[in-house]
Amino acid sequence: MKATFCTRREFCALFLFLNVFVLISVLRHMDILEFQPKFNSTIIMPRVSTHPNEIHSFCTFQPLSPEDALEEYLILDSTAWPETPLLPAPISLQQTSDPAHSTFIILPGRKGGEWHVGDQLEVMIQTSDFQGRPKKSGGHFLLASLHNRKLEAGVAGQVVDHLNGSYSAVFSLLWEGDAQVEVMLVHHSEGISVLNRLTREQPDRIYFKSLFRSGSLSETTLCNVCLRPTKQPLCNYTDLRTGEPWFCYKPKNMSCDARINHHTGGYTNNLKAKEKDLFKSGVNMKVSIQASGPSNVTVLPKLEGQLKEKSSTVTSGPSGYYYQGVWRALGGTTVRKFSASAISQCLKGKVVHMYGDSTIRQWFDFLNEALPGLKKFDLHSVERSGPHMSLDYVNNILVTYRCHGPPIRFAVPTRELRYIANELDDLEGGNNIVVVLGIWSHLGSFPMEIYIRKLQSIRRAVVRLLDRAPGTLIVIRTANSKALMLYETITNSDWYSLQRDKVLRAMFKGLNVHLIDAWEMNLAHHLPHNLHPPLPIIRNMINHLLSYICPQNGS
Question: For 98-108, how does the pLDDT look when each residue is reduced to its tens digit (9 = 90+)?
Answer without folding.
Answer: 999 999 999 99
